[in-house]
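Exercise 7. Given the encoded structure of a 427-residue chain, write a plausible sequence.
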């Protein structure tokens, strides 16, 4: 059949229902543009979509900037997410082996919080459930996309999975597949990769004293470590640890018996939270900066980790992708109002142009933070240069650092409020 005459099954197909693909599906629906959207994910929704919250010792957490919380609030999801979000009211920055440190306080920034910490075990299923219930969105899971053939008027996807159609067509395909699948490579889209030669050990830890909403950033001779406050009760005082180390040390500590691990962490972190009493399951992540060389082609967009994978120490990966997704939904809404085609290259180029500056600055910021603070000598110089040690005397520098932490610095994503909030939509 002539492809130009064929009616596509969907306007937009999103490959990957991780946090980024799910939030895009929600944003597209809430934009009121009426795009018929399908969200396809290889993972079974069982165990992902949970209605109840259970505190986890064993999962990753995401620091959400105040700017991201604003987007999620306007989408109508924040009240549900906030129930298990911990507000970061202060950030304490210090350097192991040196007295002092700096305190950044939300009140000085005229904010309730500098940001929020959410366990992925709560954030990811809440975003997926919102997409699943959104009008004009169909979720296919578990279903794996095994082939992608972009055409002139529509793209064809090949799917594998019980109950999934063998093929489907869409006018635009968004690859939000996390970058680990090889779909982009098969299209000839290369990634530029810089390996940091570091691993991050991730775990939840417990301690004696209440954290009172304070996050800790500590620079050590082996690499930076961050402790982000989690839901607190008299029974459980917990924080999410991201500890950057040379790969061999990270692996040894990941496998070390609990008392040995807690001892090493206590030496690196100190006693600000009293004795460290427990550590949950430890995971280790190799750290790299990965960027796709092309983010759009006719009928194709790369989003989330597929487009850019950042070092987690600056906590920017999801925040940046959320701003990307908000901008993409807004550009596509405008295309709809103008009677345009969502997969047309001029429409998608508009998205790239809008996002270029924020992406460049955010990627540069996290890359520089990692490289400078991974080097003990340079790290110390930077600390002094930026005035971290005497930050309290340099309010301008402090405001700059706080704005970066909150995701309110630099250019903002062109954000158009959704026509309808997801929480207000019927089933
Ligand atoms: C240790 C660590 C800590 C982090 N902390 C922060 C933080 O504090 N703040 C922050 O902003 N960011 C943080 N990040 C970054 C953040 O986690 C990522 O930006 C985010 O998870 C990217 O989500 P994604 O949806 O793009 O990819 P993924 O989460 O990888 O999702 C991809 C999805 O695609 C599906 N999929 C893959 N291939 C196929 C296929 N062929 N067919 C169908 N489905 C497919 C997968 O099943 C998966 O569900 C951190 C990252 C790490 C590693």
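Solution.
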């Amino acid at each position: 059949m002539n492809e130009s005459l064929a009616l596509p099954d969907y306007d937009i197909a999103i490959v990957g229902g991780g946090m980024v693909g799910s939030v895009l599906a929600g944003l597209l629906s809430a934009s009121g543009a009426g795009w018929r959207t399908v969200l396809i994910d290889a993972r079974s929704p069982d165990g992902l979509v949970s209605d109840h919250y259970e505190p986890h010792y064993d999962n990753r957490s995401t620091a959400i900037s105040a700017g991201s919380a604003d987007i999620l609030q306007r989408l109508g999801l924040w009240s549900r997410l906030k129930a298990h979000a911990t507000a970061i009211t202060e950030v304490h920055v210090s350097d192991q082996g040196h007295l002092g440190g700096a305190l950044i306080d939300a009140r000085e920034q005229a904010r309730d919080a500098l940001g929020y910490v959410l366990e992925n075990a709560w954030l990811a299923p809440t975003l997926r459930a919102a997409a699943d219930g959104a009008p004009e969105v169909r979720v296919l899971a578990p279903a794996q996309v095994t082939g992608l053939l972009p055409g002139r008027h529509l793209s064809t996807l090949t799917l594998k999975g019980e109950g999934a159609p063998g093929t489907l067509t869409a006018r635009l395909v968004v690859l939000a597949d996390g970058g680990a699948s090889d779909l982009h490579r098969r299209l000839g889209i290369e990634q530029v990769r810089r390996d940091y030669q570091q691993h991050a050990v991730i775990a939840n830890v417990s301690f004696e004293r209440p954290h009172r909403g304070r996050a800790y950033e500590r620079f050590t001779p082996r690499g930076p470590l961050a402790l982000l406050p989690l839901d607190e009760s008299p029974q459980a005082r917990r924080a999410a640890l991201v500890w950057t180390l040379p790969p061999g040390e990270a692996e040894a500590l990941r496998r070390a018996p609990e008392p040995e691990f807690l001892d090493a962490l206590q030496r690196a972190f100190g006693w600000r939270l009293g004795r460290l009493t427990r550590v949950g399951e430890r995971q280790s992540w190799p750290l790299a900066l990965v960027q796709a060389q092309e983010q759009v082609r006719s009928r194709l967009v790369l989003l989330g980790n597929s487009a850019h994978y950042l070092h987690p120490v600056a906590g920017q990966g999801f925040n940046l992708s959320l701003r990307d997704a908000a901008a993409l939904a807004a550009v596509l809404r405008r295309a709809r109002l103008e009677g345009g085609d969502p997969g047309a290259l001029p429409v998608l180029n508009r998205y790239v142009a809008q996002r270029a500056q924020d992406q460049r600055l955010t990627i540069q910021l996290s890359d520089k933070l990692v490289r400078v603070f991974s080097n003990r000598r340079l790290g110390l110089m930077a600390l002094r240069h930026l005035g971290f040690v005497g930050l309290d005397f340099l309010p301008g520098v402090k405001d700059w650092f706080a704005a970066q932490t909150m995701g309110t610095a630099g250019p903002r994503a062109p954000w158009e409020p959704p026509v309808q909030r997801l929480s207000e939509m019927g089933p």
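Remark. Residues 384-397 have pLDDT under 50 and may be disordered. Students should compare their own answers with the one above.
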